[in-house]
Amino acid sequence: MGEVAATMKIMPTGVDVDLEKLKDDVIAALPEGAEYGTHEIEPIAFGLKAIVMVVIVGDGEGGTEGVEEAFAAVEGVESVTVTDVGRPV
Amino acid sequence: MAAEKPHMNLAVIGHVDHGKSTFVGRLMFETGAVPAHLIEKYRAEAKEKGKESFAFAWVMDSLKEERERGVTIDISHKRFDTDKYYFTVVDCPGHRDFVKNMITGASQADAAVLVVAAPDGVMAQTKEHVFLSRTLGINQLIVAVNKMDAADYSEDRYNQVKKDVSQLLGMVGFKADDIPFVPTSAFEGDNITKSSENTPWYTGPSLLDCLNELKLPEKPDTLPLRIPVQDAYTISGIGTVPVGRVETGIMKKGDNVIFNPSGVAGEVKSIEMHHEEVPQAVPGDNIGWNVRGVGKNDVRRGDVCGPTSNPPSVADEFTGQIVVLQHPSAITAGYTPVFHCHTTQTACTLMSIDKKLDPKTGQVKEENAAFIKAGDAAIVTIKPTRPMVIEPVKEIPQLGRFAIRDMGMTIAAGMCMSVKQK
C-alpha cells in the first residue's frame, strides 16, 4: 500500500524543556511500523520552540494515530499536531 | 525557488495504482524540481549498467533508494514551478484514516489533479476521492487520463473514460464541461509538457498548460480573523501566551480579541513569529501572542481567537453534510463520536439524519432517514456535548470542515452548513 511521510509539530510543555533530549525521547517512543525521517527545531515565539519531525508511517489503518498517541505520552510533550501528510519521493 | 510566483497547493488524487506517484515524479522531473546533480548522477549510473537510453523510472527508483538511506532531507514537501505558479504537491495517502489529516492539517489543496488509468477507468477510489475533494472544498480540477501507453493510445478508450469520469463529476456537482481532460502517460511523458506524437488525435493543452490556467484561490486574509489555539503557555515576564496558526484574517497589535468558547477577551499586547516581534500576523503564520488580562487557565487548546466585534461562532447545534467513509454497521440518531475540527476534538451527538443523499445524483433520496451506512452522504443535525467553535463552510471554509472519528477509525468527513449559536 505504500508509505506516507507525516510532518508532526511537537510542542514542549514549556520553554525550559531540553529539546535535544525530547527529540531523542520521542524517537525512542516511535511505535512499530513507524520510522524517523528527519527533524528540525522551529522557533515559535517568546522563547518557545517546536520540534518539527517527519515520520514515515504505513499507508494503512489508523493513519498517524498510533504515532500521535505515542508522542503525546512522552514526558515533556504538550501537544502533537500533524501539519502535513504526503508521499515521500 | 522563485518565491515571487504565486503559490498553490495541488492535490493528486485517484485510485490506488493508477499512477499517482509516477505522475508526481514526472511533473517534478519535467519542471526541473529534481536536483540536476542527482539526475546527472543517475544518468551516469544508468549508462554504466548498460541502460543506454536514460530511463525516467531509473531516476524515480534511485530517488527512493536515496531516501531510504536517509540522504534526502525535505521528504514530505514536493515542490515544482510552472511558468506562472509555484506548486506544493499534496500527494494524498490512500487509506481513509488519513482523511483526518487532510482536514485538520495545514495543506488545504487549492486544486487537484484526478489521475484515472485509461485501461481501468473509474474505480471505487476514483469515486470516493471525487466526492471527498468536493466535501473538502476543492473546486478546481484537472483530469489526467493516464497510462495511455497501456491502452495503445486509443482515442476511443480515452473518450470512453472521459465520458464516464464526466458523468461522475456531474453527480457531485462539478461542471464537467469546464474541467480539462488530458490523455497522459506519466511513465512515458506524453502530453505532460507538450503535445505528444503518440496522440495525434488530441489537440488540447498539455498538463502543464492546464496547471498554468488554474485560478488563484481567494486569499483568506479578507475573511474575519480566526486563530485556533494550539496550546497556551505561561512565560515568565510575559504572561499568558497562546500559540497557533492564523487561519483567516489579520491580527494587529492593539486589536481587541476574544477567545471562544472560553469567552475571555482583551487587547493584543504583542505578537511574535520565529522569535521576532511582528506588528501583524496573516494567514499561514505560526505565532505566539499575548493578550492583556488573559490568564493561563482562561484559554485552552480548541479555543478560537477572533475579533470582539465579530466573535467565533459557538455552536449549540449545527447542520453538516457528511460522507460516511467506513463504519462496521449503521449510524443512527444518538451516535456520539469525536469530531476533529481545527484544533478541537469534541464529542458530538448526531441528533437527526435530516436528508439522505443519493451519491449518484446528489439529490435527496430520503427525508428523515433512520440510518446511514458506509458510502452514504447525508445532511445531519449535530449537537456538541460541550461548547465548540465551528463556522459555516460558506463563510469561513477553514473552520467549517470536520472529520468524525470513532473506534480508532475515520468514520466520516463533512462540512458545516449552518450554525445555531448558543
UniProtKB/TrEMBL annotation, chain A:
The highest taxon in the source lineage is Archaea
Residue ranges occupied by any Translation elongation factor EF1B beta/delta subunit guanine nucleotide exchange domain in the UniProt entry: 3-88
From the Swiss-Prot or TrEMBL record, what is one GO molecular function term?
translation elongation factor activity
Signal peptide range in chain numbering: none
Kindly state which keywords UniProt assigns to this record, in alphabetical order: Elongation factor, Protein biosynthesis
| PANTHER family with a match to the protein in the record | ELONGATION FACTOR 1-BETA (PTHR39647)
| Function summary | Promotes the exchange of GDP for GTP in EF-1-alpha/GDP, thus allowing the regeneration of EF-1-alpha/GTP that could then be used to form the ternary complex EF-1-alpha/GTP/AAtRNA.
Family stated for the protein in its record: Belongs to the EF-1-beta/EF-1-delta family.
Instruction: Write the protein's name.
Output: Elongation factor 1-beta
The source organism is Methanolobus vulcani
This protein's encoding gene: ef1b
UniProtKB/TrEMBL annotation, chain B:
Binding positions for GTP per the UniProt entry: 14-21, 91-95, 146-149
In terms of CDD domains, this protein maps to:
EF1_alpha, EF1_alpha_II, EF1_alpha_III
Provide the residue positions that the database annotates as binding Mg(2+): S21
Question: Taking every annotated instance into account, which residue ranges of this chain make up the domain Tr-type G?
Answer: 5-221
Gene3D superfamilies per the record? P-loop containing nucleotide triphosphate hydrolases, Translation factors
Q: What is its main location?
A: cytoplasm
InterPro entries xrefs: EFTu-like_2, G_TR_CS, GTP-eEF1A_C, P-loop_NTPase, Small_GTP-bd, T_Tr_GTP-bd_dom, TRAFAC_GTPase_members, Transl_B-barrel_sf
Q: Which residues form the signal peptide?
A: none
**Keywords of this protein's UniProt record, alphabetized?**
Cytoplasm, Elongation factor, GTP-binding, Hydrolase, Magnesium, Metal-binding, Nucleotide-binding, Protein biosynthesis
Catalytic reaction(s) noted: GTP + H2O = GDP + phosphate + H(+)
Q: Which NCBIfam families match?
A: EF-1_alpha (TIGR00483), PRK12317.1 (NF008969), small_GTP (TIGR00231)
Q: Which HAMAP family match?
A: EF_Tu_A
What functional role does this protein have? GTP hydrolase that promotes the GTP-dependent binding of aminoacyl-tRNA to the A-site of ribosomes during protein biosynthesis.
Q: Member of which family?
A: Belongs to the TRAFAC class translation factor GTPase superfamily. Classic translation factor GTPase family. EF-Tu/EF-1A subfamily.
What is this protein identified as?
Elongation factor 1-alpha
State the organism of origin: Methanolobus vulcani
